[in-house]
């Protein structure tokens, strides 16, 4: 006899439908079209799954032409002003970067990132948790600040003598890996720890970091004028734990209890 309290319900929303592709400051409409084509080829078929953060170019006939049969993803994509908006509601956020950052989030291989996205999906209950794969500008990639919003940094292994990977090609690789692990799930034991809650969303974790930073400033422990490396190091501590929704609520409750005179919302 199995203990149903130790497992979560199988998501009703398909795995691929719970994945987002986020392009930060894309500068070439042709690349946007190529990304849409790569997505649709691998089963990410909704324009609501393609986010453009502060695009530096217009969506024009070049983008539509490069998209080929995926023009609907281009015309129906979501254009937002901040990366936080693109990641709202996501549990997993994987920043694609060519170079490792000294104070960046946890490094992962592409296959490990895709496996983690599937774990998030399974742990999300019937609705299925969403994940986002975040790509930077074609010339400069992701900024350090953008990468800080991600839960992991992912690098695609390339020829060390020529590592120039086109944006559309990079998205094609990741969406192919996503399709590989999607499969047709019938019954899955998630292996979730008994009494565990769903993993926290990106915006919930960011809210906790802001709450904690404000409390540290108020206590005098943290000087925002001389931030140095404190907050990035604190982020690294918590990113190792894969915070659950209940854990974020507990941590914020602790902060509020210890900081009652200047409680932060």
Keywords:
single chain; 265 residues; alpha/beta; seven-stranded parallel β-sheet; 10 helices; 7 strands; globular
Helix and strand arrangement:
Layout: E1 19-24, H1 29-41, E2 50-53, H2 61-67, H3 71-75, E3 78-80, H4 83-87, E4 90-96, E5 106-108, H5 110-123, E6 130-135, H6 144-148, E7 152-154, H7 167-182, H8 202-219, H9 230-239, H10 245-258
Shape by Cα distribution: globular
Overall pLDDT, averaged?
89
Low-confidence stretches: 1-6, 184-188
Number of strands: 7
Number of helices: 10
Q: How much of the residues is beta strand, in percent?
A: 5-15%
Secondary-structure element order, N to C: EHEHHEHEEHEHEHHHH
Largest sheet: 7 strands, parallel
Structure, explained:
With 265 residues, the protein is α/β, with parallel strands linked by helices. It is built from ten helices and seven strands. It has a seven-stranded parallel β-sheet with strand order 3-2-1-6-4-7-5. The chain is globular.
Question: TL;DR?
Answer:
With 265 residues, the chain is α/β, with parallel strands linked by helices.
């Amino acid at each position: 006899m199995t203990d149903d309290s130790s497992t979560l319900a199988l998501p009703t929303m398909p795995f691929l439908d719970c994945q987002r592709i986020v392009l930060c400051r894309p500068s070439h409409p042709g690349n946007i079209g190529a990304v849409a084509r790569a997505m649709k080829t691998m089963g990410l078929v909704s324009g609501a799954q393609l986010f453009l953060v502060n695009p530096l170019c217009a969506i024009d006939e070049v983008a539509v032409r490069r998209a080929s049969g995926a023009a609907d993803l281009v015309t129906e994509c979501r254009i937002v002003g901040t990366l936080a908006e693109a990641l709202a509601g996501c549990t997993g956020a994987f920043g694609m970067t060519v170079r490792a950052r000294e104070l960046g989030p946890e490094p992962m291989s592409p296959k490990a990132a895709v496996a983690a996205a599937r774990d998030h999906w399974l742990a999300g209950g019937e609705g299925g948790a969403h994940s986002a794969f975040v790509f930077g500008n074609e010339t400069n990639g992701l900024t350090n600040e953008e990468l800080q919003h991600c839960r992991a940094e992912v690098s695609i292994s390339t020829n060390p003598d020529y590592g120039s990977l086109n944006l559309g090609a990079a998205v094609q690789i990741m969406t192919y890996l996503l399709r590989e692990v999607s499969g047709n799930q019938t019954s899955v034991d998630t292996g979730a720890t008994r009494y565990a809650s769903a993993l926290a969303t990106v915006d919930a974790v960011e809210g906790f970091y802001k709450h904690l930073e404000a409390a540290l400033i108020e206590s005098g422990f943290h000087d925002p004028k001389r931030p140095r490396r404190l907050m990035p190091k604190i982020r690294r501590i918590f990113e190792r734990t894969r915070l659950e929704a209940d854990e974020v609520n507990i941590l914020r409750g602790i902060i509020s209890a210890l900081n009652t005179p200047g409680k932060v919302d």
